[in-house]
Design a protein that fits this description.
With 384 residues, the chain is of the alpha/beta class. The protein has 2 domains: 104 residues, Aspartate Aminotransferase, domain 1, CATH 3.90.1150; 252 residues, Aspartate Aminotransferase, domain 2 (3-Layer(aba) Sandwich), CATH 3.40.640.10. It is 36% helix and 13% strand. The protein contains 11 helices and 12 strands. The protein starts with 15 loop residues before the first strand and ends with a helix. Bound molecules: pyridoxal-5'-phosphate.
Length: 384
Amino acid sequence: MLTNQSHLFNLPDDITYLNCAYMSPGLKSVAEVGVRAIYGKEDPTTIKPSDFFSNTKKLRTEFRKLLNFSDEKDCAIIPSASYGLANVAKNLKAGKGDNIVCPEGQFPSNIYAWKALEKEKGVQLNLIAAPKESTDRGRIWNERILEAIDSNTKMVAIGHVHWADGTKFNLKKIRQRTREVGAILVIDGTQSIGALPFDVQEFEPDAVVVAGYKWLMGPYALGMAYYGEYFAQGSPIENNWMNRLDSENFANLVNYQDEYQSGAIRYETGESANFILTPMLTEALRQVNEWGPENIQSYCRSIAQEVQSELLQLGFQIESSTFRAEHLFGIRLPASMNLGQITQRLADARIYVSVRGNSIRVAPHLYNTSSDLSRLLEVLKASV
Ligand SMILES: Cc1ncc(COP(=O)(O)O)c(C=O)c1O
């Protein structure tokens, strides 16, 4: 079992940071890599033509390890989740009469791309409402999603967990059902990958996008995407020279190439070798791989479970552990409680969580301790 890792971060002592779902604190090692890279450009001769390619390969290799797929070239460096999803939208084979299934309340990057398809192609976006029930909510929601997938469904676009309250979606069953109807499965892994195990061999997704600045512990403005067979011959949203065959040969670049490099490289963002951000995200992923997402789940469970039991006894609602993650969970308040007052008390106590609707989103990581969760409990207790 992992021990507390706060020594690897520089979080201020006088705050309780339970909001990795908003943005991870920077690892000291990642900052060091970034600073070195900034000064590296003072002498441009230190950046070699081969670095354009070795740099990106190192990052893709760490991402390949994390998601367990076989070829590093099946993934692409992207600047944001919305960029990765724009590549999906451009290549989705769907038209009038077809539908896309999403749970309601997805993060906007995982909605606007499909809303645009509604307008452009007449595809229907079918948002599956969260159940009103407080018990068994996760199970019922999963059932409703499965029921909504029909012979006109061309894609299910979903997170592994819901970004606002951590409800876990049963991707194995959803994959099975999408296969039955010939739909693709697209995962926004931004709120799970890095902290919750995700295995491409197990879930067999067609595409996965992940913004890098949360659970991948990377800098803002860089993320990763995996694209499977469905996208192998697709057309990318931009046409960067590095993504073409033989672009490593700088002397030959104006012998323009129609062919792309193999795998998913065609979907990679321009200037993917970003000599500052790419090595930073590589170091972040190296650390995440060293920790292991399953160990992050166990650690988060170990520091939060007692407080969760106590909150349940006090009348707060938390999804059962079968249908939620350990690194991100929602605490729904009893109807009688005043959310505004609690938000103020949390701010006064310098406890950082996110308020989403009528629930408080708590997102711990390895730098937290059970005392952090106890401080949160004290504020909530005092507000009952
Ligand atoms: C589920 C989810 N997806 C994506 C993002 C970020 O999207 P983008 O990289 O397009 O800004 C967030 C940010 O909070 C998120 O919670």
